[in-house]
Please model this.
Amino acid sequence: MDIRILLTGCLAAGIMLWACSHDRQAEGEVSLEGYWGLTQASINGKSSDRLSSLYFEFVRDSLVHTNILGEDASYPYQQTETEIIQQSVPEIVYSIDQLSDTLLTLTTQIQNADFVLYLGRRSSAMESNQITEN
Model:
């Protein structure tokens, strides 16, 4: 009788572990999807606060909402393992230098200027505004 209880408990634990892991992405794979607010930037190797309100919001249908070109706009994008290609005019190719659950570091060139963008994952635009105001 005790063995049945033990086996039932192990089976239930196994099912719960499988269900939880089934919902996660493949190990080591981090999703770009979500809202990313600028934490730091450099232009041509010099620290800059010119982009302090910069954000990217990547959504499921390969669309990014951003203000990188000066105004809020939405663009289709493609992601490879090492790049994000924003299909705007001009098209912008970002190299993904770092991507984790909380940090995203991108490098790109816009109008012959070299940009390094350090972004943090935020739950919303409102949270990003609260962080930059403090």
